[in-house]
Design brief:
Elements lengths: L1 E4 L5 H14 L11 H10 L3 E6 L2 E10 L9 E8 L8 H15 L4 E7 L3 H9 L3 E12 L2 E11 L2
Parallel strand pairs: 4-5
Antiparallel strand pairs: 1-2, 2-3, 3-4, 5-7, 6-7
Helix pairs in contact: 1-2
Length: 159
């Protein structure tokens, strides 16, 4: 499996992976599908968007975006990793994170944040294995699928 920068031809697969989570999961609190054009905008903005792909297709993606639109936060990015159900538990997320973190460091970023909806022991373990530390949990901050959901925030300082 190759980890590489996303290309326009990957955007349909990225959209499908994300929209599956919109429908089935709580890794995103979006409740409406995101169109391909949103990913095209992300690609055009120049923020990192990586895919894990092989001959069978795209099995996951990693993205980063500015934490908040204020100049004082310009060296902080929020990261997201999404992996297809068949790719989960196969090391895809970790490989994506390794390359994403290296790219963010290359770009001069100082801190990377990640939000994990609970319960999600696999995602917490992935983040810990990639050097993130938990910094706090917001209780019942999200609501989806007729339930309240806690979110734990993690951070990793880049060198």
């Amino acid at each position: 499996m190759l980890i590489r920068p996303a290309e326009a031809d990957d955007l349909t697969a990225i959209t499908a992976i994300y929209n599956h989570e919109v429908d089935q999961g709580v890794a995103t609190f979006d409740t409406e599908h995101r169109p391909v054009s949103a990913w095209a905008t992300h690609l055009a903005d120049g923020e990192p968007l990586l895919v894990a792909a092989d001959d069978a297709g795209v099995h996951g993606y990693a993205s980063a975006f500015p934490y908040r639109p204020k100049l004082g936060y310009r060296f902080t990015r929020e990261a997201s990793i999404y992996v297809t159900p068949t790719g989960q538990g196969q090391g895809v997320g970790r490989r994506l994170y390794v390359d994403l973190l290296a790219e963010l460091e290359r770009r001069g970023m100082h801190l990377v944040l990640a939000a994990v909806a609970l319960p999600n022991p696999a995602s917490l373990a992935l983040h810990t294995a990639c050097g993130f530390e938990e910094v706090g949990t917001m209780r019942e901050v999200g609501h989806k699928h007729d339930r309240w959901i806690d979110v734990t925030w993690l951070q990793k300082k880049l060198s």
